[in-house]
Amino acid sequence: MPQIILTPAQRKDKRSDAHHLDPVVMIGGDGLTPAVVKETDMALNAHGLIKVRVLGDDRTAREAMFAQLCDELNAAPIQHIGKLLVLWRPMPEKAKGEREDGMPGPRVVKIVKFSKSGNARPQVSKVKVMGNQRVTQGGEIKRAKKRRLTSVKKNVAD
Predict the structure, then answer these.
(1) Which side of the chain, N or C, has fewer Cβ within a 10 Å radius?
(2) 20-59 b/e (C-beta count within 10 Å ≥ 16 → b)
(3) Cβ contacts of residue 7 below 8 Å, gap of 6+?
(4) Domain that holds residue 62
């Protein structure tokens, strides 16, 4: 797979975004194993922009690993500074069921209520539960409590 080509301005923006990141993947003495490549791929899928720390001292080997990772994972090389490599790849699209803001959406829950005597059939009902609601053990739907806008101490002081 070819690498993603970025303009110098785009690369500069990615470098500034990566400045505060910690290394997610570490490459040890064994070098670039298939397990390391798989872990790097998973990290790119999860984060998009990652740092990789290489523990070897050979600069040419680090440059070769950097190029190989970018080629295999279809990632853009952002920066190679010392023993740190910075890679970027656009994050894949979210699954269809998830909302854009990441909050849980409405879902359908089946509630089963058993009879008190145990002889009759249980009552089964399907209920739509919103993101701010939960189903209690008794089968009731409860809303999450609203958060206070100010603290109790501030209300007493006023």
Answers:
(1) C
(2) eeebbbebeeeebeeebbebbbebbeeebbbbbebeeeee
(3) none
(4) 8-88
The answer to whether residues 54 and 117 belong to one domain is no
Is-above-0.85 flag for pTM?
A: no
Residue type at position 31: G
pLDDT in tens, the chain (158 residues): 567 889 999 999 999 999 999 999 999 989 999 999 999 999 999 999 999 999 989 999 999 999 999 999 999 999 999 999 999 999 877 655 554 555 567 888 888 888 888 788 888 889 888 878 888 887 888 887 766 667 777 766 65
User: Does residue 153 belong to any structural domain of this protein?
Assistant: no
**Is residue 132 a part of any domain in this protein?**
yes
